[in-house]
Amino acid sequence: MQYPNLFKQGKIGNLTLKNRVVMPPMGTNLAGPEGEVTDQLIEYYEERAKGGTGLIIVEFTCIDNEYGKGFVRQVRLDDDVFIPGIHALAKTVHKYGAKVFVQVHHAGRQSNSSLINGKQSVAPSNIACAAVGEEPRELTTAEVKELVNKFVQSAIRCKQAGIDGVEVHGAHGYLINQFLSPEANLRTDEYGGSFKNRMRFIEEIIVGIREKCGKDYPVTVRLSVDEFIEGGIDLELGKDISRYLETLGVDGLHISCGTYDSMDKIIESPLFEQGWRVYLAEEIKKEVNIPVITVGSIREPQFVENILSEGMADFVTIGRGLIADPEWVNKTMEGREAEIRKCINCLHCIHSVMGNSHVLCSINARAGRELEFKELQHLPSDEKRHVVIVGGGPGGMEAARILTLKGYRVILFEKDNKLGGQLHLVTDPIYRKKMTWHINYLSSEMKRLNIDVRMNSEPTVEEITSFNPYAVFLATGGRPKLPQVEGNDIEHVYTYEDVKLQEKEFTNSKITVVGSGMICHGTTRRLAEAGNEVTYVEIPTKASKRIGAETRLRLLEKLKLVNVNVVTDHKLERILPSSIIVEDLVSGKHSELESEYVIVAMGVEAYNPLEETLRAQMNNVFVLGDAAGYSSLGDATRDGFEKAYFLESIVTQHREEEVTQTV
């Protein structure tokens, strides 16, 4: 076997796991309005169990809905009424030989009044989390003891529901983490002050679970062994906490880092290297003799194997990687690595749940919608239908993939000499590698499925109709959008494509880049690294709205490191032959920035030259992705997937509408 350590059995306490891959707890918003387990939530976890995962840790589960809620639709286990749902989930996961834990959780000061019906959040001390911005109420000693009991009671319910073990959430700035941290815990009673006192809350929880559930019932703890905030837990204190927890008899440690005030360390943007957090687990493993689980944007099977073979950790979590591809483990085991749809860290899943949607994925349209997309409807074996797709970007290739799996004969035209479309325009070195993973995955699928791909080809309407296709999908993409200001047509105005495709060389020049988003930042840095004097004027775009605040700050810092002059909170007024005029959005003051060249990176506008003529000659013409006015990878993937998946239903509906209109 290629990865002997990855597929070696492992133990957490007395529980044997079939491999070393763990799905960590990740909020989904798939629970019901009262926190109950739903069919969709079960289906979501079933996909990951069916895909070969050894241990699934169910997302953070609320032990106190009155004050401890952390999500709009957070799974609950603070009452016996929730046991049947958890039991159904456990039975489903067990069908595939996977084991399942539940993570018990209280948000503490990282809850907020909007989540808990306008009430004030609670915490060890009345110190606000800066990221939340609401001062919590300090818990009384009696309330702390009651919360200990609530954690224990939730663990008892887990055992009653057939869950294999519990993970106590002591990480990411939540309540237990707050008791452990000298930054958040300024109490003067038995739960604050000394190291021993700060440990008392989690100690009583663990001791209580042991007493009620038995010493053989597995208990792990997730820890932020470095909070990356001033005055908080650092790695040395994290080691002390880990050693102490081992003396309490916990069966394993799930090593993480960060709080809401250092959120980019919890949920990594595309700018973080694969496995950057593994060093934390490696350091803790030197201190304890119980199993250590590591996490941190780990995507590739060989990377996992190296962690295990080098003894850096005992188990490895594949988190967002399992959202992107539930079959990650099975594909690895079966030697189908080229078929793995690797997570690209784009944060689409995070933005979806933070926006009060359920979990979604930019490259896996089924994620969070598994009940909606159960099985593909295949064509009858004797029925061969052609579909023509114009454009080999992510939307076009995703449509080609699904249609081929359904039995269609797909012909895909791509005007360039390579597939991938706008994905090739990402130039950040770390993010580019991840985006290349997705380009390679889709391109590999075209070959695996024997799809007729015709490169360097822009078909005419006559050529398309000559195939007598059942349907045509137009994924012709977009063109760079120009600002609607005076001077946008001056000859020294260029677009990001001119830079990235090297249509124009820029050296030792004074350049202003206008726009925002990942492509804009990559363009700006590339110009600066080529020796140009660059000013970046940040203008909000659709693309920039998909970048989190922490990622934006990291991107701006990277620009400053290569001496880019960064101008924010301004808007572009007009472009002149040797400068641009901008207006300060706060003061209204106008200023002039000298520029030999202006580079515009403000997103794309649809490019769709074929639709009108085609619709005049045939039915079933569909437009995808940028060509339809969308502007993100997630939109293009979803659009291509859905229209291919529901093609027959859409066609039937259109025919019925035409008949109705005729009548």
Description of the molecule:
By secondary structure, the chain is of the alpha/beta class. The chain has three domains: 10-354, Alpha-Beta Barrel (TIM Barrel); 386-475 and 608-662, NAD(P)-binding Rossmann-like Domain (Rossmann fold, 3-Layer(aba) Sandwich); 482-602, FAD/NAD(P)-binding domain (3-Layer(bba) Sandwich), CATH 3.50.50. Helices cover 34% and strands 18% of the residues. The strands form seven sheets. An eight-stranded parallel barrel has the order 3-4-5-8-9-10-11-12, surrounded by seven helices. It is globular. The model has no long low-confidence stretch (mean pLDDT 94).
End-to-end gap: 65 Å
Give the class from helix and strand content and strand pairing: alpha/beta
* Percentage of residues in DSSP E strands: 15-25%
Report helical residue fraction. Answer: 25-40%
Strand order of the largest sheet: 3-4-5-8-9-10-11-12
CATH level 1 name of the largest domain: Alpha Beta
Total domain count = 3
Mean pLDDT figure:
94
Largest sheet: 8 strands, parallel, barrel
